[in-house]
Amino acid sequence: MRPLFQFGLVILSALALLWGVELVRRQDPFLRTLANIPPDLQNLELYLERPTLTLRDGKRILATLQFDALEIERNRVHWRARNLRQATIYDERGTPLGTARARELVYNYPARRLHIIGDPTLTIRRHPLGSTPLTVQTSWLHWDLRKHQIVAERPLHLRWADGQGTIQQLYWDTASGILELERGAFRVSASLLQEQPSPKRAVDLSWDKATLRSDHSEVEGLRLKDGDTLATAERAKVFDRKRYALATGKLLLEDPRIDLEGTKLEIWYGDNQKRAVLQNGVRMRIKPRETPPPPEGETESEVEQAKRYPIDATCDKIEYFYRRKVAYLQGNIKAVQQLPEGRTRTLLADEAEYDQKAERLTLKGKVILDEPDRLRIETALAIVSLKEGEETVELPQGARGTFYYTEDEEETPQPNGNR
Question: Residue 172 sits in which domain range?
Fold first, then answer.
């Protein structure tokens, strides 16, 4: 009986202990909270609702983040946040650079790296693309706090007040504010390129790499398409505050009437100055008009025949005032046109002015028109009208020249035998 009594006493003691623990649990609010934690949260050390987290590097504030909930694991390696309502990002001077939002965020505490997922939206306040904020949308972002860099290496969609587009990669240095965009394609409003209001049209831009700094942008592999005009450049720098752009390397502009090449292009696009200067190895091709062939049995005039052949020109410098649509050509101007029967026409001048609206080309200085084996004319001023049906050449200051011709060595006799 004694062993049985001892066993029963042990059972009663265990039950009393369990009842005591339950009584304490019911009376202690902390233990009561632990009992109500869901199983998936029991490995957490800390769970906070609607907290605000400040990230620092010494005394410098990197960012402030606001969440709906923050979970910190017991090993303190990963911090998980739900619904990042607002993240404000600061530069090295403590000035807000931009903001971010996302549905979820994971912070690796030892590596000091944030992985932002759940369709994050990044808003960049200061950038060279315009005065309105730039919005970036993607599927995830990496934020390295040690390197002060936000990275996205998958397609992103960009949008701002004057345009929108896509890029393949983004690198944003949050310390300096430098923004790198690789393999992008944009469509911008024509209001960026025109001073006066006009019917809306789209301008398509693409590039291999763009670096957006605080005072200017650097672009590699630039391609711009405006209607039927295509412009390409190897490298370009854009100083938006100064309303100035510089493109270097191999430059090419193509449209239905003119192809233009060079190695250096400067553009001033401020309100008081709409000017572009192309220099260093300037080449220009004026393409022939698409004119219908003459009716059967009719012969084209020389002027009509010349319309079917391009004109290739070179000079040292072209200065184009695109508000007035007037271009000035300077230095060693030479234009060559291939003509029927293998003939060529060469035009030389010291200076030239092309008025696109009036369709008039004015040549100045030592002007020479040379057609080998036919004529050579020299003058100080020549005005060429390029209007359809009104093609003329005026020599207001006169000219001098030589005309070449050949005579038959033997005259053809008349049918009646008379000579």
Answer: 36-177
